[in-house]
Amino acid sequence: MNFDKKSLRQCIYCHNFCKFSCVPYLATKNQKIIQTQKNYLVYLVNENKVKPNAELGEAVYLCNDCRRCETYCIFEGKNVLPNNRYAKNLIFKNMLAPKKVYDIYNNLLNSGNFLGRETGQNEIRNFDKNKKYDFFIYPGDYVNMLAPGITKSFIEILGKLNKSFVLCDDDEVSDGVLALDLGMEELAGELMEKNFKKITQYKFDTLVVLNPHSYYCFINDYEKYGFKFNFEIIHYIDFLKRYIDNLKIKKTDDYVKYFDPCILSRGLKMNESPRNILGTLCNNQNFDLVKNRDESECCGGNLSLIFPDISRTISEGFLNELKSYDDKTEILITVCPLCLSNLSKAQNSDRFKIYDLIEYVSNNIV
Amino acid sequence: MTGSNLKIELEKLIGKNKVSSDIGDRLCFSRDVTPICYKWIDLYKLPPYICDVVVSPENTEDVIKIVQFAKKNKIKIFIYGGGSGVVGGVIPTEGGITIDMSRMSKVVILDEESLTIEVESGIIGQNLEDFLNKKNYTLRHFPQSIRSASVGGFIATKSTGQFSTKYGGIENYVTGLEVVLPDGNVLITSDKPRSSTGPDINNFFIGSEGIFGIITRAILKIYKMPEKVIYHCFIYEDIFSALDSIREIMQTGLKPPVIRLYNREESRQKFAKLGFDYDGCLMILCFEGNSELVDAESEVAQKICTKMKAKNIGDELGKLWFDNRFDTRHILEKEEEFGGVSDAIELAASWSKIKKLYADVESYFRKKQITLASHFSHAYTTGISVYNIFFLNVKDEEEAIKRFYAVWNDVMEIALNNDATISHHHGIGIIKKDKLREELNEGINILENLKEKLDPDNIINPDKLITKMI
Ligand SMILES: Cc1cc2nc3c(=O)[nH]c(=O)nc-3n(C[C@H](O)[C@H](O)[C@H](O)COP(=O)(O)OP(=O)(O)OC[C@H]3O[C@@H](n4cnc5c(N)ncnc54)[C@H](O)[C@@H]3O)c2cc1C
Ligand code: SF4
Ligand code: SF4
Question: Which residues approach ligand 3 with their CB closer than 6 A?
C-alpha cells in the first residue's frame, strides 16, 4: 500500500464534517477513529514524529469501512477507502493490531475462512468439471459462516427456475475482501489466486455472488491483483432483477423497511434494485428508513469479528432507536449476511423479523 | 504532578477507562480547526501546546470530581466539545487536563408539550438534529459546523446558525443550563419562558467560552418540522441597494430564516459552478413554516426586492446553496498549502454603520492585495453581519502565522473604528483577546472580576477570552 501524502493531508486539514456520521466513533467516543484524527496520527507516524502504538492500532481497527463518512465528506470521500487501507496495513505490519486480527489472519491462512473452520467436507468434486452449468454460486465466507440460509434460499429459487449450478460453499476459500479490509495485503492476493484457480476449473455462464462484500471484491480488486475473469459476474440482486418475473410470488401486506447495507448503498451504489424487487412482493410500498441509501445507518459491520461487544452496542442501538419512533414496521430486510447476522443477534424482543431479501423472496414464492 | 501521576490519581477518582495519557489522545484533543493549529503541523515536530492527560467524564458527578481535584492540586483544565472552534478555544496553553465532553451526549428529556429538549452538552449538533427529525421535530440551529460541533460548544461560543434570521442565535434557544462551576458546585437553571428575577444567569455562561464553568446539560427550544420551505433568488446591480432591501424586509417584520447577500466577486466565484451566470450581487432568501404565512411573507418580500430593481431569478440557486452549504473546500485547500492560510472574519454592525464598515474592509484587502470573499448573512431589524473570508499565501508556515495575526489585528481595528463587533459568532478564544478590551470597555472588568470570584486560581480554560495572552 503506497503512502499517499496528499490524501492523508486532505483529511488532516479538514473541518471534519464527517465526524457525526461515524457510528463506531459514536458508540465508543474514541476520537482516534474519526478520519481527521486517525489520519493526523498516521501522518505523524509517517513523518517519524510519533511512534505508532497499540492504542492507535485499536482505533484504526475500530473503523469498519462502512464508508458512511464518504457520504458527508467535504472532498467527496475519495480518500476514505485508500486511507483506511493504508492505516490498517501500517498497523498490521507493525504488529499493533488487536489480537483477534492476527487470529483471523491465521485462520484465513490455514483454513481459508475467518473462523478457522475445517472445510473440505462437501468438496466441489460433487460437481462435474466437464459439464457446462448455468451458474457458479459463490456465497462468500460471511454467508457460509454467518448466514447459510441465504445460500439455501438461493438454491431453492434456482430449483424453481430449473437452472443448473455449481456450488462452492463449505470448501470455499475466502475471496480476499476481509483480508484486504483488515490490511493483510499479501494474504489477500494469495486468497484471490486460490479462488481464481478454483472457480476457473468449472464451465458456466455466470458467476453469482451472494455476499455483496465478495462481489465488490471480485469486480474491484481481482483485476488489480492480476486475476481477470472472462465470464459474467453478478450479485444475486442482478439475478433477481432478471428472473423475478418468472417466479410466482404471493403479495404480502407486511410493513417492510429496507436496511441499506453499507456495501450496497455506498460501495456498489445499488439502491433502487432491492427496493424494486421488494416492490414486486409487498403491497405497502414505502421501504425507506429515515436514514437511507448513501446515508444509511450501520449494523456494526465487520466489528462483530473483532470487537463483538461494540458491534452489538451499535446494532442494538439501531434497533432500539427504530423502535422508539416507528411503531408500524414489522419486517426489516437487508441484502448482506453481516447485517443479517449482526441485526438478528441484537434482537432482544420479537418486535421485528429480520431477513435477507433472498430469504424473503424465497418465503413468498407460491 | 507528572502526566503519569496525574493519570493514576484521576483514574482513582473516576475510573480507569475514562482517563488517557496516550500521546495519540493528547494530540487529538489539543487541536481544533484554528488556522494556527494547521500551520503547526509542518512547522514543529509536535504542536507547542499538548495536554498532559485527557479525561472523558460520563456524567456530571465525574465532572465535579475532576474540577475539585484540579482545584485542589492547582492543575489547569481545558474543555473540548466538538473541536470545531476557529479561535483556538481548546488549545491547552498550559498543559494539564483536557476534558473531552463527548461521552456526555445523551438526550435526557424530550418535552413534546413545551417543545423543549434537555441534552447532555457533548452531543454533536447533527446527531441531535437527526434524533429530532426522526420524531418530526427540528432544532433549526444550523451552524455550518453542525456536523462536528457540540451543543456545549454552541453555548460556550454563543454560536449562530444559517437559519438564524428567523430563529436567532443559540442564546434564543437556551432555556435552562447545568454548569459545574470552578469550585465544583453545580448551578442548575430551570426552564421558564421568561422571568424577572435579576439578570438572566444563563447569559453569564452563553458565550463564556468555558471560563466560568463547564456546561454539562442544556435545555433548548425545538420546533415542529416546517410545513413549507421556499427559496427566492434575486440579482442586484449594486450591493448597497441589496442591503437596503434586506433592511426593509427585516424592519417590515418579515422573518426569513435565511437571507444571504454575496458581493459581485463572491457571487461569481461561489456560484458559477452551480450555474450562476449573471453580472451582479446574488441574494438568497428563504421562508418557511406555516404554508399560508410563508406565501404571504414571500409576496411582501418579493415586492420589496423588485421595488429596488432586483431581478427575480427563481429558487434554483437557493436550493443549490442549501445542498452545498457544507462545502468549505476553498478554505481547506489554502490551509493545506505550505505558507497558505485562510480564515473567516465575522463582523457585525448596525444598519447605519454597515456600509462604511464593508467599504473599509474591502479597501484594506484590496490595498494589501489579499484575496477576499465577502457575504452578508444573519440579519436583524437593527443591523447585519458581514462574513469576510481571506486567502493568503506567503513563503512558509512561520510567516503565514505572522501574517494571519497581522490581518486579524488590522481588520479588528477597522471594525472597532466603525463601531462594529469584532466577533459576530465565532468567539474570542486566543486569537482576538487583545482587542476585546477595546470593544467591551468597562465590561471587560466585569468579566475579569467575575472570573476572579468564580475561579480565583484561574483553573478553568485559562488564557481564553479575557486572561493573559499566550
Ligand atoms: C467550517 C466551519 C464553519 C463554522 N460555522 C459556524 C457557524 O455557522 N456559526 C457559528 O456560530 N460557528 C461556526 N463555526 C465555529 C464553531 O464551529 C463554533 O464556535 C462551535 O460552536 C464550536 O463548538 P465545538 O463543540 O466544536 O466547541 P470547541 O471547539 O470544542 O470549543 C469551543 C470553545 O468552547 C469551550 N467549550 C466547549 N464545550 C464546552 C462545555 N461543555 N462547557 C464549557 N465550555 C465549553 C471550549 O473550551 C472552547 O473554548 C464554524 C467552524 C468551522 C470550522
Ligand atoms: S473523510 Fe472527508 S470530511 Fe472526513 S476528515 Fe477526511 S476529508 Fe474531511
Ligand atoms: S468508514 Fe465508517 S467506521 Fe470508518 S471512519 Fe468512516 S464512518 Fe467511521
Answer: A 21-22, 24-25, 33, 35, 63-69, 80
